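The passage that follows is intended for readers who have already worked through the single-chain material. We present the inputs for a multi-component assembly, then the predicted structure in tokenized form, and finally a short commentary. You are encouraged to pause after the input and sketch how you expect the pieces to fit together before reading on.
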Amino acid sequence: MHYEPIVRRIGILLLASTVASSSACKQDGELDCRADGVDCTLAEAAVQAGVLVGTAYNEFRDDPEYIPALINDFNSVTHEGAMKWAATQPERGVFDFERADRMMELAESNGMSVRGHTLVWEQASLDATPDYVLDITDPEELRALMADHIRTVVGRYRGRIDAWDVVNEPLETAGSEIYENHFYQVLGPGYIAEAFALAREADPNATLFLNEVLVSSAGARFDALFELTKDLLEQGVPVHGVGFQGHFLTKPPIYDELRANLERIAALGVVVELTEVDIILHGTGDEATRLERQRQDYFDMASACLAVEACERMTLWGFTDRYTWIDSFFGAGFAPLPLDDDYARKPAYFGLRDGLLNGSGSNKTTAPTR
Ligand code: XIL
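Having made your guess, compare it with the prediction:
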């Protein structure tokens, strides 16, 4: 085990309480989000639950409402793009940390945790890796470049980023095989182990994650992630955590399956996190019915994480429907996030908050209360 979960939970509580302390609902050091009439933020509810609640961050510097809304509800943050390879090393040997640094300043001045996303990832449809990397076919050359990239990026934020997605999406997006991406083809299947060893060396205290999409349901795809994690751990690879992205685009979270998957992976001795949650409006019916359904979905998602001791953080992939990658990649109107276009709280917000509060520390299936 990389570290003692209980000790970490206490650390999370102390850290998160600095965020909560500015709130009107905390008085004389007492915070009880379950008390009648108390209107806690998501961050305050997360403190109560002993987890972190995070969001993807992006730069909307012309929008004066964006940062205050983010700070109000979250105690953890992940850059949606600026720590990816194409952003940090846009040209070979030329690093650019301006955008990433700006988020670090925001996080550090507000006492927020940071997830680093991501070091090694090939996903052609999302331009994850620059062409100059994909053009290299000599193993020693690619190995040296990958080493330099990981050392430079992780090293820059050593001690300041608590978790890194070292390898993102190691499985094929459709199917349940290991993705034979460019790194795999040139370096062999050991590329994953090599990347983790490099990250470990660059920041020995960071929690190092494998991060995968579409693994929240039971089935062959989740099994493949489980086997991969198990193999890596048996080889002594420093994998400390497994991230479930949680883009619930095709179907909503099935509470029991998600919880069982989190538990199964955690039983290998790693922490687990939901790392990129967005839950589109599912189902049929009028808008109110679908929003209500979405509230239940957010409740179920949070409950699944809280039911598993090793599930320490849930990060949403954005927080306001004003800005969601779903709009640009899948079309408008899916409204996947807990605040609406005008930053007003949707039913999903209350579902998430109730899930944080009612699901805390035990395997609850209580329905949302408001
Ligand atoms: C997406 C971002 O949200 C977009 O803004 C960007 O253009 C493409 O990438 N899985 C991941 C994330 O791990 O990095 C992706 O983020 C969404 C899918």
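Commentary: Residues 38 and 336 are 26 Å apart (CA to CA). The longest helix spans residues 287-306. How closely did your sketch match?
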